[in-house]
């Protein structure tokens, strides 16, 4: 069963917008509702839309299992390295060693009612990004493996 | 006003859930499951849990529906009439 050309074209057009919205949710995780898991799930929805719309032959040329599980590994490594760096710099495990430092994400948090500054919160946005990449790889590779199993049976 | 929207969402949840159970076309049932999840995420948003609403919209309406559609690709579209 292959999807019609309308479905495939619409999936291709929707994919970049879903990607941008998902990364918006990930990067604003410390300011607005959402975060690494929710944003990663939204991005994975975009990948899964492409996977469902196309046949396995088309998809495996653009998205490979190795790249998705590699992204998952990369996210987990970034998360644990960020956590251990807090320990290495003399703090505790998961210590927020970037907060108020003036480096990346280093602005002090404003007092009172304000629209929110993206460049705050130290390691929390970095960990949100790591969780986002990890969740998008993990959730997409599940559906890709399902589709490859069906393609092997020749249905 | 919010009470009327709330009632419409709850009625839609019931209708789509009944359609999932009764429908013999499995693809229609999967799409109806997506509508059910979308209405559920609207309900979470009305109950002021936007975090859960985003997760439900992503996982429930997006991924679960896709997994069902991939599963239907591996089998037949129509449910067998039993009995």
Instruction: Characterize the overall form of chain B.
Output: flat
Describe the biggest sheet of chain B?
none
Mean pLDDT of chain A, to the nearest integer, reads: 84
Tell me the span between the first and last alpha carbons of chain B: 47 Å
Q: How many independent structural domains of chain A?
A: 1
Strand/helix succession of chain A: HHHHH
**Count of DSSP E strands of chain A?**
0
Strand content of chain B: under 5%
What features would you highlight for this structure?
heterodimer, A: 155 residues, mainly alpha, 0% strand, elongated, B: mainly alpha, 80% helix
Provide a descriptive summary of the structure in words:
- The complex is a heterodimer of chains A (155) and B (83).
- By secondary structure, chain A is mainly α.
- Chain A has one domain (5-153).
- Chain A is 66% helix and 0% strand.
- Chain A contains 5 helices and no strands.
- Chain A has helices spanning 5-27, 36-53, 56-62, 65-88, 123-153.
- In chain A, helix 2 packs parallel to helix 5.
- Chain B is mostly helical and 83 residues long.
- Chain B has one domain.
- In chain B, 80% of the residues lie in helices and 0% in strands.
- Chain B contains 3 helices and no strands.
- Chain B has helices spanning 2-22, 26-46, 50-73.
- Chain B is flat and about 45 Å long.
- The model of chain B has no long low-confidence stretch (mean pLDDT 88).
- Chains A and B meet through helix 2 and helix 5 of A and helix 3 of B.
């Amino acid at each position: 069963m292959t999807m019609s050309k309308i479905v495939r074209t619409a999936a291709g057009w929707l994919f970049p917008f879903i990607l941008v919205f998902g990364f918006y949710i990930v990067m604003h995780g410390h300011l607005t509702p959402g975060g690494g898991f929710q944003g990663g799930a939204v991005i994975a929805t975009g990948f899964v839309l492409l996977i469902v719309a196309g046949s396995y032959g088309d998809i495996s040329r653009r998205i490979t299992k190795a790249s998705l599980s590699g992204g998952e590994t990369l996210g987990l490594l970034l998360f644990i390295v960020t956590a251990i760096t807090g320990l290495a710099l003399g703090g505790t495990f998961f210590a927020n060693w970037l907060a108020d430092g003036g480096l990346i994400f280093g602005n002090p948090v404003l007092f009172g009612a304000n629209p929110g500054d993206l460049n705050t919160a130290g390691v929390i946005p970095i960990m949100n990004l790591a969780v986002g990449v990890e969740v998008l790889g993990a959730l997409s590779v599940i559906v890709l493996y399902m589709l490859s199993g069906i393609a092997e049976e020749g249905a | 006003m919010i009470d009327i929207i709330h009632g419409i969402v709850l009625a839609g949840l019931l209708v789509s859930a009944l359609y999932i159970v009764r429908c013999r076309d499995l693809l229609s049932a999967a799409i109806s499951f997506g509508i059910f999840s979308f209405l559920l995420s609207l309900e979470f948003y009305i109950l002021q849990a936007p975090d859960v609403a985003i997760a439900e919209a992503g996982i429930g309406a997006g991924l679960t529906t896709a997994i069902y559609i991939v599963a239907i690709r591996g089998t037949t579209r129509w449910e067998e009439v039993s009995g």
